[in-house]
Amino acid sequence: MKKNLIVFGTRPEAIKMAPLIQKFLNNKNFDTKVCVTAQHREMLDQVLDFFEITPDFDLNIMRPNQNLYSLTATIIEKMKPVLEEVKPDYVYVHGDTTTSMAVGIAAFYSGAKICHVEAGLRTFDREYPFPEEFNRQLTGKIADYHFSPTELSKKNLLVENTKKENILVTGNTVIDALFYGIEKVNAENFKDEEIESLKTLLNFQKRIILVTGHRRENHGDGLINICAALKIIAEKNPDVQIIYPVHLNPNVVGPVNELLSGIENIHLVSPLAYPAFIWLMEKSYLIITDSGGIQEEAPSLGKPVLVTRTTTERPEAVDEGTVLLVGTDRARIVAETEKLLNNTEYYNAMSLLHNPYGDGKTSERIVNFIEQL
Ligand code: UD1
Ligand code: UDP
Q1: Strands (DSSP E) along the chain, which ranges?
Q2: What are the tens digits of pLDDT across the range 109-133?
């Protein structure tokens, strides 16, 4: 029996690895263990609860306002005993976090084969996004097998001389997770306290603008500009309401609370667990975000996305016209938001229900590929 070790640490990795874990745990040809670094704590645990995942190992490394140096060093060091105990044939890492990169290095030292899920996303600019572009390039270098969401991400890997036979275009597991989540949330007997409190908080006569933001390169001026734009949008458009589940990073939660508290039609709330968040995405009119995962999910729900970044490693939905890069210039954010609020034809054109990132069968393709090795 082949031994798998699936490792992740942050909220988006957990959401995107959950469907793969479910598939592997149901496959008798594999002995699959799950390890969380817990680079995130509360935001990770929310996901583990919803997908009913109990990790076999929990490195519990998160510290308040942690830095990249200690994060990287601690993960590599704490992975050693786990790798020595499990002796995996395959180690799975996801995307571009510091967990993915550091676990990739540790797995390489252990001699395991490294499988990179969501492989080949690139801006080809090491500074944007920082440190994610570096993390994913390095993980791509270390990985033995690459599961690319799209043809474009495969092409990016080929440019870097990755062996063609070790790349598989699979779609993105984020869509597998979304389909699972939507079905569970819409089931008749599903009850969720967060959703109930959102129903009380929000006025469904007003259109909802959903906002998130956390990128390191937006900390400081970028985030201040985004908040200023949101304030202008809220004041000029009393018929809309903005809801912002604020990421727990102190560099985000501090400025956002300071700049946006006490405005009548802006609701600042704690990070929502995945079911409440996807429920809220469905109820929203448009989304303003710098999140990677949300850019991928929103087209499946027919929601236009304004991305508060100037580059993206996910150009597919931009090309399809459902996602628009607006950067962090406050006038541009206000103008693009008001265009979507006031021009129905334009809004409808951006609300296409077509998703270039997957069909919900990504995990199945990954399991089949590994089974055939
Ligand atoms: C991390 C990833 C980023 C990913 C993002 C998803 C790196 C370098 N960054 O950024 O790629 O897009 O997660 O959200 O890998 N915190 C809590 N509780 C939590 C989570 C975070 O208190 O559940 C606070 C802590 O003070 C922590 C800080 O946020 O030290 C920063 O967390 P960290 O994972 O270093 O950075 P993120 O900005 O979350
Ligand atoms: N998400 C969530 N609760 C929130 C905000 C986001 O469950 O309050 C989910 C969202 O649906 C998506 C993922 O978290 O699947 C995105 O995570 P994040 O924006 O933190 O990271 P990124 O995708 O930018 O790496």
Answers
A1: 2-8, 30-36, 57-58, 90-94, 113-117, 145-148, 167-169, 207-211, 240-245, 266-269, 286-289, 305-307, 323-325
A2: 999 999 999 999 999 999 999 999 9
